[in-house]
Amino acid sequence: MRRHDAVFAAGLAVLLCLLAAAIIGGSDAGDHRAVSVPLTTVAAGAAGVDADGALRHPGGRLQQSAARLRFELPPLRPEDQSWTVWIPRAPVSTLWLQGRGWRSPQSGFFSAGDGEEGALPGGYLVPVPRDWQGSVELDLYIEGAIATVLQPRVLRRDAAMRVERRAAAIAAAVYAALFTLSLLSLALYAAARDRTFLSLSTCTILALLMLAGINGHLYGMPGLRLLAGWQAQGLWTLSFLFLASWIKLVQHYVGGHESGTATARSMNIAVLVLVAAAGLSLLDLRLFDPVLQPLVALGWAAVGLGNLALLVGAGRRRLAMAVPLGIVVLATLLLALLQHLADFGVVPALAATRYGFQCALVVLMIMFAVGLVGRISEYRDQRDYDRLARADTERRMQREAARTDLVNSLQAKLRQLAPGDIEWTAFRLLFDHLLPLLPVESMVAVAQGFYGRELLVTHPHARKDELWLELDHRLLTLRRQAANGIALQQPVTAPGKVAIEAMIPLQVRAPGWGAVLLRRRGADGFTSDEMALATEFARLAQMQIEQAIAAVNLRRSAELDALTGSLNRRSIDQWLARSFIEAERDGQPLSVLFVDLDRFKSVNDRFGHACGDHCLRAAAVALRGALGEGDLFGRYGGEEFIAILPGRGGAAARQVGEALRAAVERLAVEWEGQALRLTVSVGVATRRDRERTPAATIDRADKALYAAKRSGRNCVHVAPAVFS
Question: How far apart are alpha carbons 705 and 724 in whole angstroms?
Fold first, then answer.
């Protein structure tokens, strides 16, 4: 048995023990301290008398029954209380005693509170004259339409009042419990918006009215005395309405209120029949008086057994509280039927039966309330589950949006960067997108041999030096951890603080390595979800880095000459057009140099094209090394190269041409053990003010190159010096 089941079983046992104590205490009308005298009852007319002296009134129609009471009264001392005839309260219209020339005032069930019994009477209290002694005979007269059993007793007044107080206490407890439970049900309905709580409140209110009517207390309440006009018919109406509400309560409780099912249709029909019976009772048709009371008893039996069957089925479905409710329903049904049988004189009329039925009905309503409160906890658990599921969905959507945003940002920015800036920018974007989702104290991306470079990116950037000092002595350990390729977290200590550090390894080809380090202050570690998120973002960043570098390399391969690694003809033409536009806009000089290898055809003829390609590569390296930063260099075709010098012209351009010539002349080239001597001829042309496109300048540089060839090669010629 689970722990909460054991707690509930213990609480139920305590509740039943209290119920039993209340029944035993309330039923002890013959308190051992009470002073009573023997009484003999003799029936007259249609009435009957049981073996224990109880008077049976047949009911069915409004009629009168009579019985003679015989008892001996001992003499009273001055301090003794007077004698009274006390009769347990029964639903009769009129009751009185007479004899010895004396007649008591009339008492009535439907006029509670008018006699000496108090506001919540438990019986009819009829004082006899104090001076009576010896043998006494009194005639008891009753009128009423309800079959009932009366058991008169002769008690001293103090004993009778004790019995009255005890009965009043039980009735008050029953009413208070039902009233409080009704208010609680309304409050729960307002909070949970579950119609079952409304059904419970309605059923509890009707149970309160019905029990107050059965006890005769309903008619003593201010504002409800008007109900006394219906008398017996009012009692049957309240009973039918309570049974109808009980059906609806159980129907809602077990989930049988869905329309369309056979069970729902049957229960709805039963409710309609009971409501119709209640309306029929209020019509006060004397024709139906003999059958209404048996019909109420039959209704109790049918409704109780039907609800019991529903609860048994619910218990098989493991509905909360269904089995305990079934047990209490069975007990309530048995006590109710015993009370009805006692009214017809079939079984002895016991106070324990009467009070036991009422207390059992209270326990039944309480059990329904407990079960429904348990249902609220289920609703709360379901609501919490839905809330967590919704929060999880929102968190996933937020992370997916951040993931998409990160990918879009990386794709948009990395494609525009040079290779040296791609890695740094990618991890800076990674930190910017990860920080709102994963609050940390610091983030560090550290790598060696990462696409041929070393990498250190920190957040916050202002702590870069401090973070590097902390990492410097741990690089070997971090390298080993990153080599395992498994994300992990570990505590780290720093002066005055304790933190948890998560290490996300990067996929770097050995012997290089890399990792992203996330540090959070305190002893609370990173969840598996957070680790997976950081790993996913690091993977995306690295994937975009690879794609960006690949795109740069592809773009370069399209711009460069495959043999020499210099700009190709197409790229040179684009740069020339752009450079001329910028030179005209800024008013700066611009020079173009044509460089051609001397006697290159003889190299190919003597040593082959492989040697020629080797010479071209060596010459390109030497020429590129002789140019300054900002100068452009490319292969224009065959053995011919071109250099673009933004911001230089005239003598400066000629000096660059001489530097190019000298660089090739000094070049030592070997091919299959044989030294080769290479020289170049250079033609220089500077853009004139009227030249807005490269064509004229290139034409002049080309003519200057041919002039250098004709002048003996291995020299530099400037176009204006040759062509005026």
Answer: 16
